[in-house]
């Protein structure tokens, strides 16, 4: 890690979402959502399909404007960060590389446009288990390989914050274990991890803190142990908090 990175690191970077709202036409996708994600913690952002997770993350990453509220990274909007990829590494559903590009070229282009040392490209390809297939065109990648490439891109700038939307999507058991360990290690080194998912068991394995979103609103938040207290599983706690009935 660079010295500047180490300094930011000691302080830790906080994600602060406050009274956020977003509408798509007449539908409310995000309704007065507030939560924080703290350094040294994996924060699980958990909710079913259509709950509003991606809409929230897109605003956090400066891809959409909110109808109201703020989404800040250490007090600043994403678009106001000096070198965003060096502060925030993100994996978003459907925001992949150009399919005709070779994986290594995609990462090299990202590194160059963010003034990230070229050596990081080889390092993240290695880390993501893609070194042997780095020269393949991305369109030939399997879903899991594409996911690994997305995570490699997120790690490129050695960011203080990782924001990952459904990172285990398409990964095999070994890949899932790799992501889990990566996120745990990342948080253990004092950095901030926001993990968005609809997978309850997977989130329960990885997260320290939880933010539960349901129909655009926060249904519960707090340390995992507090959310699940008195329930046999996170799934049971989720259904109790949201008032939905389990399919089982
Ligand atoms: N671009 C869009 N135009 C219209 N409606 C949208 C758009 N994006 C999201 N929505 C709607 O907003 C709501 C929240 O969607 P969002 O994608 O944020 O949920 P999510 O929790 O990320 O779900 P998923 O896990 O399925 O991605 C849903 O009802 C969805 O249909």
Automatic annotation (TrEMBL):
Keywords: ATP-binding, Nucleotide-binding, Transport. Residues 15-240 form the ABC transporter domain. InterPro entries: AAA+_ATPase (IPR003593), ABC_transporter-like_ATP-bd (IPR003439), P-loop_NTPase (IPR027417). It comes from the Bacteria. GO terms for molecular function: ATP binding; ATP hydrolysis activity. It holds the Pfam family ABC_tran. Belongs to the ABC transporter superfamily. This is ABC transporter domain-containing protein. It comes from Actinoplanes auranticolor.
């Amino acid at each position: 890690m660079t010295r500047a990175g180490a300094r930011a690191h000691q302080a830790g970077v906080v994600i602060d979402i406050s009274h956020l709202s977003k509408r798509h036409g007449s539908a409310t996708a995000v309704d007065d959502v507030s939560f924080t994600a703290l350094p040294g913690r994996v924060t699980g952002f958990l909710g079913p399909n259509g709950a509003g997770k991606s809409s929230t993350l897109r605003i956090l990453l400066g891809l959409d404007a909110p109808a109201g509220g703020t989404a800040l990274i250490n007090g600043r909007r994403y678009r106001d960060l000096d070198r965003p990829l060096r502060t925030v590494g993100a994996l978003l559903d459907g925001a992949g590389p150009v399919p005709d590009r070779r994986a290594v070229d995609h990462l090299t282009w990202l590194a160059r446009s963010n003034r990230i040392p070229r050596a990081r490209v080889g390092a993240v390809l290695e880390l993501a288990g893609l070194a042997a297939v780095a020269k393949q065109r991305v369109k030939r990648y399997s879903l899991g390989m594409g996911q690994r490439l997305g995570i490699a891109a997120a790690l490129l700038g050695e960011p203080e914050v990782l924001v990952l939307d459904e990172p285990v999507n398409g990964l095999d058991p070994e890949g899932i274990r790799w992501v889990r360990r990566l996120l745990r290690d990342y948080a253990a080194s004092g950095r901030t991890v926001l993990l968005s998912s609809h997978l309850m068991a997977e989130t329960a394995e990885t997260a320290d803190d939880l933010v539960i979103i349901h129909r655009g609103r926060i249904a519960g938040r707090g340390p995992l142990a507090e959310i699940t207290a008195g329930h046999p599983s996170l799934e049971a706690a989720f259904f109790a908090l949201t008032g939905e009935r389990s399919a089982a």
